[in-house]
Each structure stands twice: as structure tokens, then as C-alpha cells.
Protein 1
Amino acid sequence: MVQAQKALLQWYTIYGRHQLPWRNTTDIYHIYLSEIMLQQTQVTRVKEEYYPRFLQKFPTIKALSLASEEEVLALWSGLGYYSRARNLYKTAKLSSHQFPTDYKELLQLPGIGQYTASAICSFGYNQNIAVVDTNIARVIKRFFALTEPKNSIIWDKATELLNSKNPRSHNLALMDLGSIICLPKNPQCTICPLLNNCQGSKNPESYTQTKKKEYEKMELFYAVLIRNNHIALTSSTGTMYKNMLQLPTVDPIEELFITKFKHSYTKYRLTVNLYKVEEVIDDIIWIDLDKLNQSPISSLTKKALALTII
Ligand code: SF4
């Protein structure tokens, strides 16, 4: 085990993604924010767009706690999975004076599960704790040749492999190894620092066969109503875009049809139909078309508006 830990750290020193901004800060709020944004979102998008923009507006957890939820959602607009933003905001309100350092206390905060709590403890506080995200889970399953293990077994094995002398770098190294070398398809075993100790290197893909994702199809019908350079939007109460502004719903009437488009959101594959109407039944808020970018609207609504407001 010691040999594998050593080889991993040597590899990380040379090939690790040390330039990522959240790896070059000790500010726990910045580290926490990056972890929330990185769930379900590509590193490049977070690094280049959302992380710097968010920190420019809310540089401290205190600043975030004093904002309105609408402002936070507006800044999150386009990033998807908006429950992340709502939980981030709730956590900021609860922890603006003192962010917990204890794993169990972190788990009590909204939106913080086993992964995020351990990532904060490891990357933020360098505590001796294993971290398991999708990439690390793949490495662990292959390294220990685990066939369809329970989650708890993966965490136990990650703890067994953990380098207690440098847990932070060890976890970051495993994460990078999973995203650069131990890829889901065609893992690069011949150049992997763990090759000599990896029990699954003869047939790595057999330990990480992925189940086909199941998607839910849904058809949506929205009204487009514009008056005096203002558009009618409504606050979503459904689980999909809760508290975000969206187009009002409408019963489909063929003569009023404008266009339709496809959109993917989490597990949903949506067909969105748009209708030009003169009135709607939902409670509406009139939003100035020139101020749309300051409003909490989703990518779906942005797409719909781009197709109808020309
Ligand atoms: S040797 Fe291959 S399967 Fe094992 S950890 Fe490295 S890349 Fe993954």
C-alpha cells in the first residue's frame, strides 16, 4: 500500500491539476462553493465562468448570507440543478459566523452529504479522511478489483488506501488520476502510477460497467406574452425550477403555436411548445426585457426567449 501511495503522490506532483483556483486557497467558503458548483458541472465551466463571477459578487459567506435568494438564483442561472444554489444560500445564512470544521456538523447543513462533507474536511482542513467522488470510486473499484460493491465498501477501501501523512494531496491525486488516466473507457494502465499494485488492471472495465441511464420524457406548453418591452413570467412552484422565473403555462391552441424545441434537464428529456397569447391565467410578474440577465431564469427559459424575442 505504501508503494502505491508514494507512486500516486509522485505522479500528482508532476501531472496534478494544481492550477485550479480552489486548490490554491485556504478560504473554506471558496472551497465549499467550488465543491457545490462542481457537482454535475464541468470543471472548465465552473473555473472560467461561474466560480469567478459568483465570488466577485459574493466574496465572503457573509456577503452571500445578506443577499436575496433571487439574486443568488440569478447568478446561478444557466448552471442547472438549482437546489444547489438554494441550499448554498441556506447554509450561508446558518454558517456566516462560523463554518463548521467537524464532519458530523457539516452533514447537518442543507445540501451537504457524505461527499461534500468529506471534501471540505480533506481539501479545506487537511483532515485525515477519505473522499469518494465518481472518479475516485472508479479507481477504487478497479484498484481493489471490486465487483458491484456497496457504497460503504468503496468508502472503506478508500480509507484503507488513504495516505494519512498527506491526506489532502492523496485525495486530490486520486481524483485527478480518475479524470486523466483511469478513464471510464480505455483507462491508460500502461502509464498509471498504480499499475504495479492494481488488482483490476488486467480487465479494468469489467469492474465499472455502467447501467444505461433512464430518462423521462415530458412535454411542456408555455405562453409568450410581451407588452411594452416587458415579458410575462411566473415564479415556478414545481420541483424542477423551484423559485425560478419561467414562462407561464398555457393550454395548447394550434392557431397560437409559435415553435417547439428540445431541452434536457437532469433526468428529463423535454419537448417545449411555445404559444403567442394575449392573456394567461398564472400569477405573473412583468420583467423588463433589458433586465432579463438580472433575473433568476433557467437555460430552458433563456432558450425559449431567444427563439421568440427577436
Ligand atoms: S492500473 Fe489501470 S485500472 Fe488500475 S488504477 Fe491504473 S488506470 Fe485504473
Protein 2
Amino acid sequence: MAENSSSCIACEGNLVLFGRRLDYEYHRCSSCGTIQLLPMPDEADTALSYESEYANVSHYESDPDRCRASAGPYYRAIIRALRDYGVKGKVLDYGTGWGGLLGMLTDNGFECQGVEMSSEMAGYCRELGLPVKQGDIKAVKGERYSAIVLCTVFEHLTDHGRWLSGARQLLENNGLLITLQPTAGFAGLMGRILGLGSLHRPLPQLQQVFCPPWHTAFFSFEGMKILGRRNGFDLLEIRPAPQGRSGGITGIAQRCLEHVNRFGWYLMDVLWPLLIAHTFVLKKVDFPRETSALKPK
Ligand SMILES: [Zn+2]
């Protein structure tokens, strides 16, 4: 079960109520800025929801073709990162969804395996001939990978530390974890602006950002670095993620924002606040002796 203390899941700092949405509360760490649900949803309940109903909840695109089209820029960004770091061996796509990224990885010559909790989505992928196991990280226990990739999945986990320790066991030495996810900067800024600074006003959904219980945490850069370090990973790089590609007005806004963001990132790098998501590249490292007390339980 996820730990439900009132300290930050990334850095163990103090949490302060940030805002409410539906019957849930998001809290913000006063030390690292990570925004997280408090309490965290129960892991077993969440697993059941993902398995049985996630393919049809409004949070996730229920049409596989539309999903592939809108998330295409994310998939390409992840594949670019794999190439830039020279990944050659087997890749695990964790949280495969309708198989868009897994299909693109295969088309680009990567040997890969997918894992998906939703039985409907996993079944759909298998019908397409994609190698997908239904379940969570335990479904591939004992396997070895050069890299694990997550495309808008890390923000869904309910026990990030335990997941990282499971992921670490699957990776070869120096193996990479590449995760594209919405981050704390944009969520924090927009939550504050659109909530008009009032804790009584519900948080805006912001497209699909504040989506409890599905989105459990928006990590800050500092939060990801500390969380990684505590669980045997070095944060190598933070990349700006592209915008998705929806149709209509949203699509036009996404394209505009992407141009603005390219310029903003060029000028201000990680300080640029209008990026909804970032790609983190982490590397599995040995636990330093002096921090062995911080090893995951
Ligand atoms: Zn924190």
C-alpha cells in the first residue's frame, strides 16, 4: 500500500494544501515544489480500476487511432532520447495504452516489450501482434532491459519509490529510465492563476492535468532528482516535451504554445514555466556506500 504520511513523496518535505478537485486534495511540497494527492489513492483499488475500467474513463483517449495521432510528438521525443543515448538493447514500454509508442518503437528497429494494466488495452495490443503483458511491473519480473520508457505514465503511479526499485531490478547496469510526464511548474503556476489564489475554488482541470484520482503527482525537477537518487538513479537530463496534437482549436493552441515554448526554453532553459511536460532521462547507478541507509525498503 502507498505510504500516506503527510510528507512529500519526493523529498519528505512539508506538504501544504494546494487545492481541491472532486473529492480529492492536491498538496504542494514547501521544500521541492512537487504537487501530490493527499492521501494517495489505495494501490490495490487503483490497480482494479485500471484493469477493469481505464480504457473507457474520460481521462484517456478511448479511440486508439486518435490517441496515436495526438500523442505522436511524445512518442517521437522518447525515441529521439533513446537514439541520443545510444540505446541498443531491449526496451520496456511501461503503461503501453493502445500500443502507439510500442508500435513506433518496433517500426524503428527496437526490440521491445510492453506492459499494460488495462485488460482491454492489453488485449487490443495483442490483437495487433504487439508483445504486451497485462499487469504491472511484476508482470515482467526477472526480465532484463537496456531501457524502460514511460509516456505520460509516471504521474499515475501510487507508490513511486517502490515502482522505481522494481524498475531498477529490471535494468541492466547503467540502464536508462526515460519518462515523459507533466511537471510541477506548469501545474503549480496555472493552478494558482486560474484558482485565483483561493483554496475554496476547485482546481481547474486544465485539459487533463488536475485529473484525480488518475494523476497522483506532478514532480518538480528537484523532486525527480531527489526521488531518483534515493532509489538508485542519477538524473542525467531534463528535456522540454513537445505539445500533443489534437484537432480543432486545441490543436492550433498546441502548435502556438509549442513555438512560444521553443523560444522560452532557448532563453530560460529549465526556468521556463509554460511547458506542461518534460522528459526526464535517469540512469541506474550503484547506491553510494554513505547513503546506503536511504536504500528503498
Ligand atoms: Zn518535496
